[in-house]
Design a protein that fits this description.
The protein is of the alpha/beta class and 300 residues long. 34% of the residues lie in helices and 11% in strands. It has a six-stranded mixed β-sheet, with helices on both faces. A hairpin with a 5-residue loop joins strand 2 and strand 3. Helix 3 crosses helix 6. The longest helix is centred in the middle third of the chain and has 18 residues. The radius of gyration is 19 Å and the shape is globular. The two termini are 21 Å apart.
Length: 300
């Protein structure tokens, strides 16, 4: 079975409010074939999200020029728990797209990494509940009536879910409602989704966001005809981060994740990973495809 991809690009994102490199910053790992067709890895550590976007576009442009299809993995959720689009009364019949559009309208992310992710969470809380829920987590100086440093209460049966189906399937996954502190992914999602949306808009039919635009199903070469990039949510903590102990953990993780998917692709097993786990209900499959998204390989 032929490989689906020629290159594997894994992005460890960051919601940092100032330029930063090293640990807990942005890392872009690129695993692609060299002139001898052997897989070779290189990594980039841009100090800001703006620099990262420029680098990512350059990487994707180069791969397209070489006619090499790319799996592009991001380590933050591409969707929110089911019901958010309806609760916010967003227009359109495609919930994931409506939420992407709304987040992009609200986010202000400057070239120096100054950003309003806490303001976005606070405003969504105001619209949903009028209080500091469901988003939570911020430095004390950013405390507002509608956003608190600590979680104000548990999720009840009438609230939006705390976890997506994908989060429940991945042991240790954090809730997207958590905006700050160790393990949080909410801030990264708020600042990362507008980037993925821009890449999607600029690259047209050549760019597919999984599972929203690919379908939540096993993929074949025929499914990817004319596609240059498949963007997917990945969870690097699912894979053992191999490498030298003195290396930054984020660097080890992007490399190990890229190598994991490359090995599966070489063995003809990666396409099946895009399908839902057998244990997932038909309702959950539909929700993931239309609204919540899914972690590639989650629950497998």
């Amino acid at each position: 079975m032929p490989r689906l991809f020629s290159a594997y690009v894994i992005v460890d994102w960051s919601a940092a409010a100032k330029p930063t490199t090293g640990a807990d910053s942005i890392w872009i790992g690129v695993l692609k074939r060299d002139v001898r067709f052997r897989l070779a890895f290189e990594a980039f550590n841009p100090a800001t999200r703006a620099e990262a976007e420029v680098k990512l576009n350059a990487i994707l442009d180069d791969l397209k020029k070489r006619q090499e299809r790319c799996l592009l993995g991001f380590d933050f959720p591409l969707g929110f728990p089911r019901g958010l689009s309806t609760a916010l009364k967003l227009p359109g019949e495609t919930p994931w797209r409506a939420v992407w559009d709304q987040i992009a309208k609200m986010v202000k992310d400057k070239p120096d990494n100054t950003n309003n992710r806490f303001g976005v969470g606070s405003e969504i809380n105001r619209r949903l509940t009028g209080g500091p829920f469901p988003f939570w987590g911020c430095p004390p100086r950013d405390t507002l009536t509608t956003l608190q440093p600590k979680r104000s209460r548990d999720h009840g049966p009438d609230d939006l879910p705390e976890l997506r189906f994908a989060d429940a399937a991945c042991k240790g996954a954090s809730s997207v409602w958590k905006l700050y502190y160790n393990g949080s992914v909410g801030g990264q999602a708020i600042l990362g989704i507008p980037l993925v949306r821009r890449l999607d808009a600029a690259r047209g039919e050549g760019f597919k966001a999984y599972p929203f635009e690919t379908g939540f199903k096993a993929l074949t070469e025929a499914d990817l005809a004319g596609v240059d990039v498949v963007a997917a949510e990945v969870y690097p903590s699912l894979y053992k981060a191999e490498g030298v102990a003195t290396e930054v953990k984020d660097l080890r993780q992007v490399r190990s994740t890229a190598e994991h998917f490359a090995r599966l692709d070489e063995a003809g097993k990666l396409g099946a990973l895009f399908g839902p786990p057998k244990s997932l209900s038909p309702e959950a499959v539909k929700v993931a495809e239309l609204e919540e998204g899914w972690v590639l390989g989650g629950g497998a």
